[in-house]
Write a structure and sequence with these properties.
By secondary structure, the chain is mostly helical. The chain has four helices and no strands.
Length: about 80
């Protein structure tokens, strides 16, 4: 049995805000993954080497994971409060 889009949407709206935000993010991620070009192993290796060279040369400065995580949590919190 299949559920209609309207019924699915109504069910999703009944979820608490944090679960709706999680569902929305997961759906958006699934769309982004479908649009992402498929890279070969060689293309991935070249990209890793390029980015590594940028880091080594100082052309790009990384952001510590603790800062990235804090920023992501802040954004998620703001979205779920909306």
């Amino acid at each position: 049995m299949s559920i209609s889009n309207d019924d699915l949407f109504s069910s999703a709206l009944a979820l608490p805000p944090d679960r709706r935000a999680d569902l929305a993010n997961r759906l958006l991620d699934s769309l982004a993954a479908a649009r992402r070009p498929k890279l070969s192993d060689d293309e991935i290796a070249q990209e890793v080497q390029r980015r590594s060279a940028e880091m080594d040369s100082g052309e790009v400065i990384g952001i510590p994971w603790s800062e990235v995580r804090a920023e992501l949590r802040s954004r998620i919190s703001r979205k779920s409060e909306s």
